[in-house]
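wait is this the right file?? whatever heres the structure
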């Protein structure tokens, strides 16, 4: 194997010092243009490429950013919390929608409700912004109760964005003392973490007001486990809107089933087995994933949506638009969230002494068929 050219070879051929070669690549403003061109010509002639890893070791930087999720991705192999995996997703799509049919054809045996999700779209924005800035990217995921994976990826990047687990706050705070860390969907608090969030309460307030004022719903209930911070804020937003409108306010969540539960929505299933009059006339779901499963459950029970029960979600994932009925929801600016996380990490690396950043982005209500609108 031929010997790889070194910085010394380039310096000798260009007739300059190795320091000048280094400046020509890393700080071109410090050398004359003619000198820089001579260095580049010599490097091209020799086939020399600067070593990013060596440069990173010298600067104590890797040049990479990481993004990590604590198992927020759902699988479609039966480990999806009891949600049905249908080999034929066709009946859940609008038959006249060519895009929906194409999506269904491409899905084969996969459950179209598990991809792409909120995590996937935020991650895409993170990837795009890393690519735009010329940053390498590491992606990781692991169990909510296990910290080894995130510690491993944190050791190999300059900055990290994280979709937190239920009990990951303490670990993330420790990591944030060593490198910049952006947490998605975590409440602001003292410490070194940066935060990127959305207006959960405001978004669900808008959905709830729409259900009451436009569609006349009076028995509104919430579905989803409020142990998740985002879901708790959405439940609070629903309750605040109902209180302002003079509509009965539930003290508790109707069905607090987490997405990882072995049996999906046991409380709602029991209600569906009884008199229809016992059902709420609107279900505000913690996420689109909850809402899509609830729509399937209602349809299987013969409940007409939205005539008997209106359903709303939150996130704005693709499946909600393709579903029949299409899902009323709040669209999070997911790609923008991912890009913003890269901006924050980059700025923090440029100015390590800057204080932590907390950004709350707006959401956009989308009123579609599942609440009774024509969208």
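ok assuming it is, sequence goes like this
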């Amino acid at each position: 194997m031929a010997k790889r050219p070194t910085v010394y070879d380039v310096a000798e051929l260009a007739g300059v010092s190795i320091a000048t070669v280094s400046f020509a690549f890393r700080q071109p403003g410090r050398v004359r243009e003619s000198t820089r061109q001579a260095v580049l010509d010599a490097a091209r002639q020799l086939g020399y490429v600067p070593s990013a890893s060596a440069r990173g070791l010298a600067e104590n930087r890797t040049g990479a950013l990481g993004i990590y999720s604590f198992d927020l991705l759902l699988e479609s192999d039966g480990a999806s919390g009891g949600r049905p995996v249908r080999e034929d997703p066709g009946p859940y799509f609008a038959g006249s929608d060519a895009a929906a049919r194409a999506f269904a054809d491409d899905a084969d045996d996969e459950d179209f409700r598990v991809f792409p999700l909120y995590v996937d779209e935020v991650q895409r924005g993170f990837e795009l912004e890393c690519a735009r800035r010329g940053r390498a990217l590491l992606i990781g995921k692991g169990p909510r109760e296990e910290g080894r994976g995130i510690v491993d990826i944190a050791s190999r990047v300059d900055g990290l964005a994280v979709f937190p687990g239920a009990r990951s706050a303490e670990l993330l705070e420790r990591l944030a003392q060593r490198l910049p860390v952006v947490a998605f969907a975590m409440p602001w608090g003292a410490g070194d973490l940066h935060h990127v969030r959305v207006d959960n309460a405001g978004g669900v307030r808008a959905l709830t007001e729409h259900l009451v004022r436009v569609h006349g719903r009076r028995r509104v209930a919430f579905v989803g486990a409020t142990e998740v911070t985002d879901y708790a804020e959405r439940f609070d937003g629903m309750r605040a809107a109902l209180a302002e409108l003079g509509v009965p306010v539930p003290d508790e969540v109707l069905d607090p089933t987490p997405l990882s539960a072995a049996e999906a929505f046991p409380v709602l299933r029991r209600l569906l087995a009884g008199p229809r009059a016992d059902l709420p006339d609107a279900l505000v779901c913690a996420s689109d994933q909850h809402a899509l499963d609830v729509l399937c459950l209602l349809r299987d029970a013969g409940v007409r949506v939205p005539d008997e029960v209106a359903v709303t979600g939150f996130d704005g994932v693709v499946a909600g638009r393709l579903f029949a009925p299409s899902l009323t929801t709040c669209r999070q600016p997911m790609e923008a969230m991912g890009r913003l996380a890269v901006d924050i990490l980059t700025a923090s690396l440029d100015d390590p002494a800057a204080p932590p950043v907390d950004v709350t982005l707006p959401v956009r209500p989308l009123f579609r068929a599942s609440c009774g609108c024509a969208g």
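Confidence is low (pLDDT under 50) at residues 73-110. so i think its the right one actually
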